[in-house]
């Protein structure tokens, strides 16, 4: 019997009202805070402390003004956070340096644990996808800096995604680029991946549909699907999961699945985590 941690997690961009609760946390220098509302999609992974979901603010959310605007200071005390803005705009100010970033739909925010950031959110509402990770293996010499990218970035270093499946051997499945290659603990990587017509894949149909087996050999993968339709089939049970752009997906390391991206194109923000550091040569 497969471990209970080996499941496919999934959640929609607009969960039902009962799935939202006030977001409460302890800010190390400021004590207990309550700001906005959170809906958890992925409560655990196969290792470390991994969670993911959605966070939102509005005029009726805790800590917000009557026009839906709000201000809060957040240092991601539970672990490194990767977030993507879905709706709304905000100005982020790193308190230690004074550096400011204006973020809006599609902005990808990489927040190292412990970096205090002031969030000045513009009304009437705001929503983001978030993934928080904390492992037990400290990474030396990590740059404690806020980083902001965008889902529409088109860097020159897109690369075919080559990987080796334990049962199927070497494969290629779409192409990707990295946003970050490490976090402050364990393995934490993130980036953007795409597949479809004209993009390399071991199994690519004329309409752009791409199919590949996958067991997450590098770690758990947490995804915000940015574009397209995806079907995930669990190998052991045959259970199928269907996802569309905007959905959150959680894949478990060691769980064999088949990933099928429907044509003509698909795109995702991915975060891979594992409670050990990558092997060094």
Automatic annotation (TrEMBL):
**Lineage top rank: taxon:** Eukaryota
Pfam families tied to this protein: Cupin_3
InterPro entries attached here?
RmlC-like_jellyroll, RmlC_Cupin_sf, UGlyAH_Cupin_dom
* SUPFAM superfamilies, A to Z: RmlC-like cupins
Residue ranges of every copy of the (S)-ureidoglycine aminohydrolase cupin domain listed in the record: 220-267
Q: What is this protein called?
A: (S)-ureidoglycine aminohydrolase cupin domain-containing protein
- The record lists the organism as Paraphoma chrysanthemicola
């Amino acid at each position: 019997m497969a471990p209970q941690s080996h499941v496919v997690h999934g959640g929609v961009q607009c969960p039902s009202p009962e799935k939202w609760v006030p977001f409460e946390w302890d800010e190390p220098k400021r004590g207990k805070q309550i700001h906005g509302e959170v809906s958890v999609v992925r409560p655990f992974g196969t290792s470390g402390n991994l969670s993911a979901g959605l966070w939102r603010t509005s005029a009726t959310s805790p800590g917000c003004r009557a026009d839906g605007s709000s201000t809060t200071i957040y240092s991601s005390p539970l672990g490194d956070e990767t977030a993507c803005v879905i709706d709304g705009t905000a100005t982020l100010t790193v308190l230690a340096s004074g550096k400011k970033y204006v973020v809006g739909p599609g902005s990808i925010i990489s927040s190292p644990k412990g970096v205090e950031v002031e969030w000045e959110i513009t009304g009437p509402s705001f929503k983001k996808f978030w993934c928080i990770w904390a492992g037990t293996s400290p990474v030396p010499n990590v740059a404690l800096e806020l980083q902001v990218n965008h889902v529409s970035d088109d860097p020159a270093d897109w690369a075919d995604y080559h990987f080796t499946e334990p049962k199927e051997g070497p494969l290629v499945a779409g192409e990707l680029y990295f946003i970050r290659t490490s976090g402050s603990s364990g393995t934490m990587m993130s980036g953007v991946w795409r597949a479809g017509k004209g993009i390399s894949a071991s199994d690519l149909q004329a309409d752009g549909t791409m199919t590949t087996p996958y067991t997450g050999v590098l770690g758990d993968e947490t995804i915000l699907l940015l574009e397209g339709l995806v079907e995930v089939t669990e190998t052991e049970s045959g259970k199928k999961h269907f996802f569309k752009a905007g959905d959150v997906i959680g894949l478990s390391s060691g769980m064999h699945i088949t990933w099928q991206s429907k044509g003509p194109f698909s795109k995702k923000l991915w975060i891979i985590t594992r409670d050990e550091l990558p092997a060094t040569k």
